[in-house]
Amino acid sequence: VQLVESGGGLVQAGGSLRLSCAASGITFSINAMGWYRQAPGKQRVLVAAITTGDGITNYANSVKGRFTISTDNSNNTMYLQMNSLKPEDTAVYYCNADSGRGSRRKSSWGQGTQVTVSS
Question: What distance in Å separates the CA atoms of residue 90 and residue 28, rounded to the nearest whole number?
């Protein structure tokens, strides 16, 4: 599975952005997808995740009520709608896909997209 993110940029606090993650390759094998972020000097952390089968979502407490994760299976794309952005949301955002089963289970990453929120 190959992943390509887009949609990052510079926005003022309180603004919105929508990130996209286009998946290609053996997309039918994807079990779940997620968005992670990594701020300078900090570890990469989970922001939101969604299962591809039943659409169950999970959010970090820091983004609940502000961010929405979704998928469009018709074009193998995952989205992250980010509203009410805060300066602390500034980070590189990475798309992740968990695919396969057993010994063929694999975690794939995109190249990342920068999100900068100014105060």
Answer: 32
Strands 17-24 and 77-82: antiparallel
The pLDDT value given to residue 73: 87
Does the pLDDT at position 38 exceed 90? Answer: yes
Distance, in Å, from the CA atom of 87 to the CA atom of 78, rounded to the nearest integer, reads 24
Residue 37's H or E segment, with its range, is strand 30-38
**Tokens 């309180």 found at:** 14
How many whole angstroms separate alpha carbon 65 and alpha carbon 101? 32
pLDDT at 53: 85
Nearest CA to 5 out of 40, 42, 33 is that of 33
Which pair of structure tokens corresponds to residue 30?
């994807």
Burial class (CB in 10 A: 0-12, 13-18, 19+), 101: exposed
